[in-house]
Amino acid sequence: MPLPSTYPDPDCSIARALEVVGERWTLMIVRDAFFGVRRFGDFATQLGVPRAILSTRLRLLVEHGVFAHADDGEYTLTEKGLTLWPVVRSLLAWGDQHYAPAGVSRILRHDLDAGLIDGDGRCAECGLVVPVPEIRLERGPGHSGGSAPGTSRLLLEPVTR
Ligand SMILES: [Zn+2]
Predict the structure, then answer these.
(1) Which domains does the chain have, with CATH numbers?
(2) 17-33, pLDDT tens digit by residue?
(3) Ligand 1 centre and the CA of 150: distance in Å?
(4) Separation of 131 CA from ligand 1 center, angstroms?
(5) What is the model's pTM?
């Protein structure tokens, strides 16, 4: 069910942004793209999203230049898509703060110095706001799969099956 395209305040940039990324599943698809998912079937499996909905959401994201769809079938974040990282990171931090009783599910580290990255995207070691390609994702204690070794990887690094 798409959101109505007429908001009370059509001049509000939040309302306009939510027309692109505010529908159910869309930010989960974007999140998984940051986590290295690229193929339609992998998004479907990872998210458990109905394929018809996934297809609609991906088409919209490509139309809006958030994803590129290559000839080999892979979906990747564009430069515009990559600028959604602070949105995903902030939602992750907010969810960790309020809805993660078993502990955080994912830990973000600066790959260059292993510093923990805070909710503002800043590295505790070097103090920099860490660019996406230098962010390492690890499972935290609240992850349902546990924090097993070998489960750490860089953002955008393609998921291999
Ligand atoms: Zn650092």
Answers:
(1) 13-82 (1.10.10.10), 85-154 (no CATH)
(2) 999 999 989 999 999 99
(3) 21
(4) 10
(5) 0.89
